[in-house]
Amino acid sequence: ENDADKPKIDLKHLFPNLTGTEFCFMPKGHRLFLVTQHKKSSISLAYFAKALHGLLNRDHLVDEYGPVDISVETDVKTIESIMSMDILSRLIIRVNMPNNELKQKYIERLKNQNGRTHDERLTAEKGKTLVPDDETKAHMQLALSNGFIQATGYENDVRVEKKSSEMPIVYKEQYDSDVTTLFDSLLGYARSLLPFFTSRQKKDEDFR
Question: Are residues 150 and 92 in contact, defined by beta-carbon separation less than 8 angstroms?
Fold first, then answer.
């Protein structure tokens, strides 16, 4: 690749609010990894996901390729935090399709109904708390990588709302700039983490 082949894009009009970051997309596992903080530069995962969703869902792209869902990998502690609430009043779970990592019976069930997303909404009876069953917990597990979870309830008599988007998986790593570049370091780290993300939905114990 040489400079003559690179596109000429004038970014001056985007300053001083332009934020750049290194990222890499792994087609095989369908995962995108990015640097959210480096030196004095930082970017919000939620903002990045929203911007990427808008970019990939422009009208002409949707007309040709269909809509694209963007989900942020969420820490499993999201479920633990929700299940530990004193009173769970309301629970909303969304699981997006298509997704090759979903349990086969789940895929077939949605396909048979021409479904693209599955929304589950549970509201507790007055004065009671929700008690999610195994199937609901399995849907919550799926939503960690392919959707979102939102819960409303009470802790210590105080009303609280918890969202999976507020608990993304973030890793803190260092690299030696004298030995490697930031991108190469990110790429190596992404390759080492990819098996974890592509297998976390396939464990049988997650669907009991």
Answer: yes
- Asked whether 194 and 101 are in contact (CB, 8 A), the reply is no
Q: Is the pTM of this model over 0.70?
A: yes
Beta bridge partners of 168: 74
How far apart (Å, rounded) are the C-alpha atoms in residues 62 and 190?
Answer: 28
Cα 17–Cα 20–Cα 21 angle in degrees, nearest 5? 145
| CA-atom Rg of the chain in angstroms | 20
pLDDT by residue (tens digit) across 108-151?
A: 676 677 766 778 899 999 989 999 999 899 889 888 988 899 99
The DSSP symbol for 168 reads B
Q: Three-state secondary structure along 94-140?
A: EEECCCCCCCHHHHHHHHHCCCCEEEEEEECCCCCCCCCCHHHHHHH
Helix (H) or strand (E) holding 54: helix 45-56
Do residues 162 and 154 touch, judged by C-beta distance below 8 A?
A: no
Burial class (CB in 10 A: 0-12, 13-18, 19+), 145: buried
